[in-house]
């Protein structure tokens, strides 16, 4: 079988090389099986019914209509952690330039052009305006200990900082990777009251909008250097501006500038460079493409954001059946009844659910025809049925 892949942005050529002869890639193929995307906004896009998979070569999925895709039986997967090192390194840059006033110093140095032999003396006289503290020995707070947050926390430990982390939902895998020197905070308030530097690494959603707000900033340690390389909406800009004016926040470094932050004093606006490295783009593309191949060829779901992850390896029976459906009572009973009515014997079956949607994989010992597929699609709540082998 030849799978058609549509690309909505430039995707790393190194990543695309992972696709074998069973795949064709184009900007606008007819009836694509899958879509690979980076930042293209898909909310107003008419997604073809043929699309079974959308792979985001990156972590954020705000540009993809996740609910609509779930209803159409389209699995959406992202690339968590693929850009983690790139973001970590930019956080390190942000911490340093927030402390040492390096950017201001560089801009001032440019004004010394054409000063001739006076430059050396002027530098020595003016450099005191750009003095800033070292990171060593300072207290660093990391909020959100996912793939990026763990790397940032460990990096701060290596800088000789006293590090505290806050993440009530830290995964076991990320906890294993966290330095034992990182202390656990019980609340975000505890982090803001005690830290000299704080780096945000949480997702943006309704629950985290304005995560940093006026109430939280009231109890913040004066002179805080706040870094946001996660998402812009996490920080309430009106509250931030007042905190900057009052000296509560000494410097804000953001990778998500907007009209308001560009006008604020003591804000360093970086033009969304967190994942802008060739290595990061390659890693993200490779992860998204591997997830796509696994889903299209074997039905296995890896790194999904709208359906549950589900893996049954390679099918070793006559056919593999996959069903994307609503997570409602008696769905499994209806599915197995259809198979029984068509004399199909189940060899292996698994069912996983997430946020109102579920995914069922079934390996059967006999051949399944289009009549079985049609009968399953007729069940209320079923979004998509595939017979893979």
Give a written overview of the molecule:
It is built from 14 helices and 16 strands. By secondary structure, it is α/β, with parallel strands linked by helices. It folds into 3 domains: 1-83 and 278-306, 3-Layer(aba) Sandwich (Rossmann fold), CATH 3.40.50.720; 84-99 and 132-269, NAD(P)-binding Rossmann-like Domain (Rossmann fold); 310-389, ACT domain (Alpha-Beta Plaits, 2-Layer Sandwich), CATH 3.30.70.260. The strands form 3 sheets. The protein has a 7-stranded parallel sheet with strand order 8-7-6-9-10-11-12, sandwiched between helices. A 5-stranded parallel sheet has the order 2-1-3-4-5. The mean pLDDT is 96.
Short description:
The protein has three domains: 1-83 and 278-306, 3-Layer(aba) Sandwich (Rossmann fold); 84-99 and 132-269, NAD(P)-binding Rossmann-like Domain (Rossmann fold); 310-389, ACT domain (Alpha-Beta Plaits, 2-Layer Sandwich), CATH 3.30.70. Helices cover 33% and strands 21% of the residues.
Give the fraction of residues assigned to helices.
25-40%
Let me know the average pLDDT: 96
CATH class of the largest domain: Alpha Beta
Shape verdict? elongated
N-to-C series of helices and strands = EHEEEHEHHHEHEHEHEHEHEHEHEHEEHE
| Largest beta-sheet details | 7 strands, parallel
Supply Rg.
Answer: 26 Å
CATH superfamily placement of the largest domain: NAD(P)-binding Rossmann-like Domain
Portion of residues in beta strands equals: 15-25%
Secondary structural class: alpha/beta
C-alpha termini separation: 10 Å
Biggest sheet, spatial arrangement of strands = 8-7-6-9-10-11-12
Number of helices: 14
Low-pLDDT regions: none
CATH topology (fold) name of the largest domain: Rossmann fold
User: Would you count the extended β strands for me?
Assistant: 16
- How many domains make up the 3D coordinates? 3
Annotated CATH architecture of the largest domain: 3-Layer(aba) Sandwich
